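Milestone 3.1: sequence recovery, worked example.
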């Protein structure tokens, strides 16, 4: 048992070297595939997918013998870049389920499930979620769940795709697993056969100190695995600040259309990882390995964070076309600087926020039309002057109508907040100029050029406002609320500096 850990999931991708290549070329999943290393005639198989194993192909075979056993076999050289990218992709997928992971080996991730049951449900539901997240980044995984990493690792190898072992039955569940179903060093497997051991239960029943005295550290590790015991501490994995995806090529690329096709595949895999982690690309660097042994590097800073491959590939193509590499290309690597995907706030009855790229395009066009100083977000100035505001840079983070009242109490009764009455004040912008008759300084009749001619039946006011009296922008006004003889309620404003009257607002 590991201190502080209650349940562990082991996420395992079988035949990982082949799965990494299938992730780069999805069509290989439908064919028998062998991953080979070495130069002819010393080429040998290091990994084979399920279709190739069904045809008799096994790691360690020579290339010629593998083709003889499976004539339809497709061979691909081992790719360290593809395996590294797939390894990070699996970690990224698991990170969307739990914040505490351990990178155990290529294709094997241990996931701490502590505290997830109340959020995500039972162990089997969490296991299915892990499988879905792995599939989203192009990998097929098996998941075993137990109270130790050793037991979870065995459960991920046997049984259904999601194999959750109950805490009280782990010893019995592990005891019936045949030793032949696990991968052992050849010398260790031969020793187990000589001893007559057939299952993990047979191995776990032996005295641990006796196994260690005869087989050393390898024997102790095997005994701990059979007993489902963890001895090493849990080493949490931390996500890197840059997200990378790479792919080696079996041929040399000399034209831009061929390079764009490769960039599209690599970027689609990278964007799938980012989408699963709710991230977007803020800046991107492409590193092209050249046949001459050098590298050609270009960087692209995006006007708005994106996670759509088509738009980013178009920008990369323009950048590479403007600065072409000096030699043929043999490998491609992308490194992205990412930021969290920001959810634009919106109300239930409001339209969805525009895509960042479309919003950036509209802002650019508006800036070209009216100038940068005339585009922005209006911010009310802290003064008593009506319509006093400034333009702040627009970031798309706020949507009108979503903000609560500045001094509203969220716990207050809604009926209490609306007890002032049903009237709403509709401002007229620009205010309409009118002629007003007065008696003893109070309005008595209102006329304008649009046909309004009504007597003031009652009025309230004045409310006197003024400001900036110390400079040339001085202003002073009186405001009146008036009820006219035609049944309407208005707010009048009197500019005391110019002695003019305006209809400033209408009460609805």
């Amino acid at each position: 048992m590991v201190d502080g850990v209650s349940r562990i999931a082991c996420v395992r991708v079988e035949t990982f070297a082949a799965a990494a290549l299938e992730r780069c070329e999805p069509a290989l999943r439908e064919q028998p595939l062998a991953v080979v290393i070495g130069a002819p005639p010393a080429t040998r198989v290091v990994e084979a997918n399920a279709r190739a194993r069904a045809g008799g192909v096994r790691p360690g075979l020579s290339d010629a013998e593998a083709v003889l056993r499976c004539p339809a076999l497709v061979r691909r050289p081992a790719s360290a870049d593809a395996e590294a990218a797939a390894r990070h992709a699996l970690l990224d997928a698991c990170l969307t389920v739990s914040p505490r992971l351990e990178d155990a080996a290529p294709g094997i991730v241990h996931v701490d499930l502590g505290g997830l049951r109340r959020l995500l449900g039972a162990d089997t539901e969490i296991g299915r979620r892990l499988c879905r997240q792995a599939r989203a980044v192009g990998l097929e995984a098996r998941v075993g769940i137990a109270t130790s990493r050793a037991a979870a690792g065995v459960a991920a190898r046997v049984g259904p795709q999601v194999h959750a072992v109950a805490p009280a039955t782990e010893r019995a569940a592990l005891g019936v697993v045949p030793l032949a179903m696990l991968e052992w060093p050849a010398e260790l497997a031969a020793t187990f056969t000589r001893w007559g051991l057939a299952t993990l239960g047979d191995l776990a029943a032996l005295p641990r100190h006796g196994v260690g005295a005869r087989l050393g550290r390898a024997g102790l590790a095997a005994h701990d695995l059979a007993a489902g015991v963890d001895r090493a501490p849990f080493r949490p994995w931390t996500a890197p600040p840059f997200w990378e995806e790479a792919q080696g090529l079996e041929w040399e690329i000399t034209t831009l259309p061929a390079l764009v096709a490769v960039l599209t595949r690599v970027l689609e895999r990278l964007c799938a990882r980012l989408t699963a982690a709710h991230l977007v690309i803020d800046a991107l660097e492409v590193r092209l390995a050249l046949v001459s042994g050098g590298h050609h590097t270009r960087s692209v800073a995006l006007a708005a964070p994106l996670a759509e491959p088509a738009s980013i590939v178009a920008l990369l193509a323009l950048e590479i076309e403007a600065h072409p590499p000096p030699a043929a290309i043999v490998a491609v690597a992308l490194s992205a600087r990412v930021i969290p995907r920001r959810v634009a706030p919106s109300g239930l009855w409001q339209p969805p926020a525009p895509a960042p790229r479309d919003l950036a395009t509209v802002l650019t066009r508006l800036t070209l039309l009216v100038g940068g100083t005339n585009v922005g977000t209006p911010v009310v100035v802290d003064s008593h002057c009506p319509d006093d505001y400034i333009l702040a840079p627009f970031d798309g983070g706020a949507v009108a109508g979503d903000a609560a009242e500045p001094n509203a109490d969220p716990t207050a009764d809604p009926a209490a907040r609306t007890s002032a009455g049903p009237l709403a004040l509709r401002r007229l912008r620009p205010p309409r100029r009118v002629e007003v008759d007065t008696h003893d300084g109070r309005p008595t009749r209102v006329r304008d050029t649009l046909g309004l001619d009504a007597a003031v039946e009652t009025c309230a006011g004045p409310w006197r406002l003024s400001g900036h009296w110390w400079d040339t922008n001085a202003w002073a006004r009186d405001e009146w609320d008036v009820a006219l003889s035609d049944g309407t309620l208005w707010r009048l404003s009197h500019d005391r500096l110019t002695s003019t009257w305006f209809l400033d607002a209408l009460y609805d």
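The two ends are 71 Å apart (CA to CA). The chain is about 30% helix and 30% strand.
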